[in-house]
Amino acid sequence: MQERIERLKEQFETELNKARTGEAAEALRISYLGKKGAVTELLKGLKDASNDQRKEIGLHVNQLKKYAETLIQQKVEEIKKAEIEKLVNSAEKYDVTLPSEDNVGSYTPITLVQRQLEEIFSSMGFTIEDFSEIVNDYQCFESLNIPEFHPARDTHDTYYLENGQVLKTHTSAAQNAIMRKYGPPLRAIFPGRCFRNESTDASHETTFFQMEGIMIDKDISISNLIYFMKKMLSEVFERDVKVRLRPGFFPFVEPGFELDINCLICGGDGCPSCKNSGWLELCPCGMIHPNVLKMAGIDPDEYTGFAFGLGLTRLAMMKYGVKDIRDFNSGNLKSLSQFKHE
Ligand code: FA5
User: Fold this and answer.
1) What spacing in Å lies between the alpha carbon of 170 and ligand 1's midpoint?
2) How many Å apart are CA 250 and CA 261, to the nearest integer?
3) Is 60 exceeded by the pLDDT of residue 199?
4) Looking at 177-247, which runs of residues are DSSP E strands?
5) pLDDT at residue 216 tops 90
6) Could you tell me the pTM of the whole model?
7) Nearest CA to ligand 1 atom 18
8) Ligand 1: centre distance to CA 125 (Å)
9) Does the beta carbon of 289 sit less than 6 angstroms from any atom of ligand 1?
10) Which atom of ligand 1 lies at the shortest distance from residue 204's CA?
C-alpha cells in the first residue's frame, strides 16, 4: 500500500509540473482530490483494511491529500502571478518625457473674439447670460413687437420644429426672458448661435453667431449707446476703425440704427466680403421700444434702455481677415489651425 501511495505521489508531481494554466490545475485537483479522484478513492478503500493498517495507511493518504492540496493551491497562485506579469509586460508603454506631437486642437476665431468681448463687457459691469438655441414664437417675435404677419418676419425665416418652436433667428429672442429674470436696472450681454433660411454668400451663413447686449436704467440715452459701441470696437481691434451710423428699422427699437464698419478685408475699396460697398453691417442697435419694455414688465415711463445685436461671426471675419464666412463652418482644419497659438 505504501508503494502505491508513493507512486501516486510521483505521478501527481509529474502531472503538476506539466500544468501551465488555471484550467489544467483545476483538472488535476478533480482527478486526485475530487469525489472520484485517485486520493479520495484510496481513502474510501481504507474501510476494507484492518484496524492497525487503517490507522497507518490513513495517516499517509491524508498526508498525501494535504500535500496535493497545498501544491495545487501554490500552482494556481503561480499561474495567476505569471498571467498578470505577462499582461503588464505586453501593455503599451509610454515615455512621458518624450516631446508631444503638435497636433492639439484650438479655439475657433469666433470663440476667441467672443471671449474677448465677454471680458470687455464684464469689466464694464455687464453680466454674461446663456440662452437656449430653441425658442418659442413669443420669445423670437411677439415679445419683440413683431406680431404674426409682420413683414419683419420675412428676413427671419428659420427652421420650425413640429411643436411650433423655432431655432432662434437672433439673440434678441432672449431679451424678454432676461429682462423678466433680473428687472431694471440691468446690464447684460448674451452671445449665441442663430439660424436662418439664407442663401449663403461670402458674408451670409445659415448658422452664425451674434452677441446681444442690453442696458436698462433711468435716463439711458443714445449717447450711452454710442459710447459703449465705440469702446467695444476700439478694444476689439486695438486701433481706430471707421464706423458709420445710419437709421435702421427694427420693430423692437425706436429709434433704430445700423452700425457699419469700414471693411477691413479691402480697406473700403469694395470686395465680395462687403458686397463691394466698402462697408459691412456689423451691429444694429437702438433704444429699446416701450412696447418691448412693457411686455417684460418694465415701466417705460420710468426706465429706458439700449440694445444691440452684434454679428459675432462677421466681427471675427474682420478681426482675423477671414474673407469668406463659409470657411468657419467648412470643417477645414487647415484654416482653423492658424489660430492655434492665439
Ligand atoms: C438682428 O438680428 C437684430 N436682432 C439686431 C438688433 C438687436 C437690432 C438689438 C437692434 C437692437 P440683423 O438681422 O441685421 O438684426 O442681424 C444682426 C447682425 O447679425 C448683422 O449685422 C450681421 O452682422 C449678423 N448677421 C445677420 N444675418 C447673418 C447671416 N446670415 N450670416 C452672418 N451674419 C449675419
Assistant:
1) 7
2) 19
3) yes
4) 186-195, 207-217, 243-247
5) yes
6) 0.71
7) 311
8) 24
9) no
10) 31
* Domains in the chain: boundaries: 2-90, 109-328
203 pLDDT more than 60: yes
Question: Which CB contacts under 8 angstroms, 24+ apart, belong to 15-20?
Answer: 16/71, 16/72, 16/75, 19/75, 19/79, 20/79
Closest CA to 214 of 237, 191, 242: 191
Nearest Cα neighbor of 212 from 200, 228, 227 is 228
- Specify the residue with its C-alpha closest to ligand 1, atom 24: 311
Give 92's pLDDT tier (boundaries 50, 70, 90).
low
The residue nearest atom 23 of ligand 1, judged by CA position, is: 311
Q: Tell me what the mean pLDDT of segment 81-104 comes to.
A: 77
- The model's confidence at residue 241, banded by pLDDT at 50, 70 and 90, is confident
Owner of C-alpha cell 447684460: 188
Its CATH architecture, for the domain 109-328, is 2-Layer Sandwich (3.30)
Nearest-5° Cα angle at 329, 323 to 333: 85
Which residue among 210, 279, 306 is best mutated to probe the pocket of ligand 1, counting the most ligand atoms within 8 A of its Cβ?
Answer: 210
